[in-house]
TrEMBL record, chain A:
The keyword Cell membrane applies. One of its GO terms (molecular function) is calcium ion binding. InterPro entries: Calcineurin_B_homologous, EF-hand-dom_pair, EF_Hand_1_Ca_BS, EF_hand_dom. It comes from the Eukaryota. Belongs to the calcineurin regulatory subunit family. CHP subfamily. This is Calcineurin-like EF-hand protein 1. One of its GO terms (cellular component) is cytoplasm.
TrEMBL record, chain B:
SUPFAM superfamilies: Glycerol-3-phosphate (1)-acyltransferase. It is a multi-pass membrane protein. Belongs to the 1-acyl-sn-glycerol-3-phosphate acyltransferase family. The keyword rRNA-binding does not apply. InterPro entries: LPCAT1-like, Plipid/glycerol_acylTrfase. Its main location: endoplasmic reticulum. It comes from the Eukaryota. GO terms for biological process: phospholipid biosynthetic process; triglyceride biosynthetic process. This is Glycerol-3-phosphate acyltransferase 3. The chain crosses the membrane at residues 12-40, 144-163, 169-190. It is found in: Endoplasmic reticulum membrane. One of its GO terms (cellular component) is endoplasmic reticulum membrane. Residues 243-354 form the Phospholipid/glycerol acyltransferase domain. The gene is GPAT3. The lineage of its organism: Eukaryota, Metazoa, Chordata, Craniata, Vertebrata.
Length: 197, 462
């Protein structure tokens, strides 16, 4: 039967992940199956190469940045907890969650946390500001060789001009949120099709 | 002790008698006494009962997860442009323009592919809709009922202690393989001695053909019997001489299945071990073409030989698997254009295995040939449907790639398989950068649509 059965997820772990991320029991077991099938080295963690092996991710222009988002600062391996924590950002927002526990910390998949995830895609050096260079870097990744440097530069300048309110030629997280307020955040979800129990 | 020994010998003799005269010999001559079909029918009834029982059990125990054959996420079926429009919602952008939230689109697509992608799942065994009482497919199925477990236990006993010895005794050790090796050697050696190597093929064609075909057919027919194979052929449109036969590839047993119903010249990758022995012995009697995939020189030589073979209209049809590798029989992946450039008529064949009776897919990175055969011989049976499709030729204005895609769709449609454009060699290699560049191009078109900025004003260093 091989490795899938050899390291089954314990009930306590499932409960902890459930509390932290909000995924249901069956969703967690399903995603654990996926995690182990990606884990070719069978050591309970994923490396960057394991992600790169997914063709649809390898052709994604922002593929490398997305993969980076899974790995904590300076580390090369991600375990299942970390994997789930990152995926949790893209869980659909459910209305009844707000009522459940008003005093709890903000859930991972809240609107703000989704936008923070996107913000971190741009802000590579984690200084809480998107500089012109960082913006240009991401733009270049997304368009490849199809747009010239000058045009790209003007697009970046225009974007910063529109979003920047305090005049420091950088986009802070608050400015980012304001600039994205019309974004249909409900689209930014990965909808898992599972029978709800 | 001696009594026990004589009893055992007697049982063994009876067994061999039953096996040889009731199953193997008739099969080698193309007849069937119906034993296998009865067995299959019993199995079908058993598995249907098991499915119902499991479903009932699932309702009673809701924590048991249900398998999802169509993947675990819902995907929006829009193009890049449509989805970006949705993301930006009410913000009216005059023809494109960049928005900071565009990164979220790629983010979502990336995460969707991390959770569930279309390609990597094709290189491992299919997930079954319901457990088929084999230990090896028991991924998420927990204890449901006592009766089910009893049947599973009986199944283990029957498969390992009754069917497996039966099959292994008939199959490799005694009849099938040795007959194949001996028979082909005889046919191969005789002409060589008298006429010299250069005339082997012509001799084989004129005189030995009938014998060659007979040897092949009979040895190939012995093999499936071992595995309790139930093959249903759709007999119209059988490939003719001088044509190229093209099929989807799941396992080396495909070859045996097709050879059951006709003689083919084969083209394929050289293997080591048991497969290599079989390949080398087959070459002696029939003009098969074995080559090394990674050798460029080899490939040119192969194409030349294939062209020559097709041009001589009296030769056996060539059997090619254009996917180039084994796929798990849920989909058909990209067909390599090499076989479609040769010219000649293409006879497509669709092969579909029934996954309920055993997993036919050969995961070559996980199992070598011998363990694969062991697994196949200890599964319930191999039930396969083979459809011969009407012959196709390249049309005017169509290039090899388009023709290959057309044939692929026809095979996928007939076999009930998913038609994917992804390359099967992604099993072993990385995806080409050209696909990423295509995505980047599409996105550039979105943001500079009608802005007056020409999107073709690209960097000059191309």
């Amino acid at each position: 039967m091989g490795s899938r059965a050899s390291r089954l997820l314990r009930e306590e772990e499932i409960e902890e992940i459930k509390k932290e991320t909000g995924f249901s029991h069956s969703q967690i077991t399903r995603l654990y199956s996926r995690f182990t099938s990606l884990d070719k080295g069978e050591n309970g963690t994923l490396s960057r190469e394991d992600f790169q092996r997914i063709p649809e991710l390898a052709i994604n222009p922002l593929g490398d940045r997305i993969i980076n988002a899974f790995f904590p600062e300076g580390e090369d391996q991600v375990n299942f907890r970390g994997f789930m924590r990152t995926l949790a950002h893209f869980r659909p927002i459910e209305d009844n969650e707000k009522n459940k526990n008003p005093s709890a910390t903000e859930p991972l998949n809240s609107r703000t946390n989704k936008l923070l995830f996107a913000f971190r895609l741009y802000d590579l050096d984690r200084d809480d500001k998107i500089s012109r260079d960082e913006l240009l870097q991401v733009l270049r990744m997304m368009v490849g060789v199809n747009i010239s440097d000058e045009q790209l530069g003007s697009i970046a300048d225009r974007t910063i001009q529109e979003a920047d309110t305090n005049g420091d030629s950088c986009i802070s997280f608050n400015e980012f949120i304001k600039a994205s307020f019309v974004v249909n955040i409900h689209i930014c979800t990965v909808v898992l099709v599972l029978v709800n129990i | 002790m001696e009594d026990l020994w004589t009893v055992a010998v007697a049982v063994f003799q009876l067994w061999m008698f039953v096996v040889v005269f009731l199953i193997t010999l008739p099969a080698m001559f193309g007849l069937s006494l119906g034993v296998t079909s009865v067995y299959i029918q019993i199995l079908v009834k058993l598995l249907e009962w098991a499915t119902i029982r499991i479903q009932r059990g699932r309702q009673e125990q809701p924590s048991v997860p249900a398998p999802l054959p169509n993947g675990i996420i819902e995907r929006a079926e829009g193009s890049m442009e449509e989805e970006m429009e949705q993301l930006r919602r009410s913000r009216s952008l005059e023809g494109g323009e960049f928005a900071l939230s565009d990164a979220l689109y790629f983010c979502k697509k990336g995460l969707e592919s991390i959770v569930d992608d279309q390609v990597t799942q094709r290189f491992s065994s299919e997930d079954l809709a319901s457990w088929n009482l084999l230990t090896r497919t028991n991924q998420n199925f927990r204890y449901i009922s006592l009766r089910l477990t009893i049947f599973w236990g009986i199944g283990v006993f029957v498969r390992y202690c009754v069917l497996f010895p039966l099959r292994s005794v008939i199959a490799l050790a005694i009849i099938g393989l040795s007959w194949l090796v001996i028979g082909t050697t005889l046919v191969g050696i005789l002409p060589e001695n008298r006429y010299g190597a250069s005339t082997v093929h012509t001799f084989g064609d004129c005189l030995g053909e009938a014998q060659t075909e007979h040897v092949h057919l009979s040895s190939c027919r012995a093999r499936p019997v071992d595995l309790s194979t139930c093959v249903s052929f759709c007999r119209e449109n059988r490939p003719q001489k001088g044509g190229i036969c093209v099929a989807n590839h799941t396992t080396p047993i495909d070859v045996v299945i097709l050879a059951n119903d006709g003689c083919y010249a084969m083209v394929g990758q050289i293997h080591g071990g048991l497969m290599g022995v079989i390949q080398r012995s087959m070459v002696r009697s029939c003009p098969h073409v074995w080559f090394e995939r990674s050798e460029m020189k080899d490939r040119h030589a192969v194409t030349t030989r294939l062209r020559a073979h097709v041009a001589a209209k009296t030769k056996l049809p060539i059997l090619i698997f254009p996917e180039g590798t084994c796929i798990n029989n849920t989909s058909v992946m990209m067909f390599k254009k090499g076989s479609f450039e040769i010219g000649g008529t293409i006879h497509p064949v669709a092969i579909k295995y029934d996954p309920r009776f055993g997993d036919a897919f050969w995961n070559s990175s996980k199992y070598n040939m011998v363990s694969y055969l062991l697994r196949t011989m200890t599964s319930w049976a191999v039930v396969v449907n083979v459809w011969y499709l009407p012959p196709m030729t390249i049309q005017d204005g169509e290039d090899a790639v388009q023709f290959a895609n057309r044939v692929k769709s026809a095979i996928a449609c007939r076999g009930g398989l998913l038609d994917l454009a992804w390359d099967g060699s992604l099993k072993r290699g990385k995806v080409k950068d050209a696909y990423k560049e295509e995505q980047q191009k599409m996105y550039s078109r979105v943001i500079v649509r009608q802005n007056g900025i020409s999107a073709t004003n690209t960097r000059r260093d191309n």
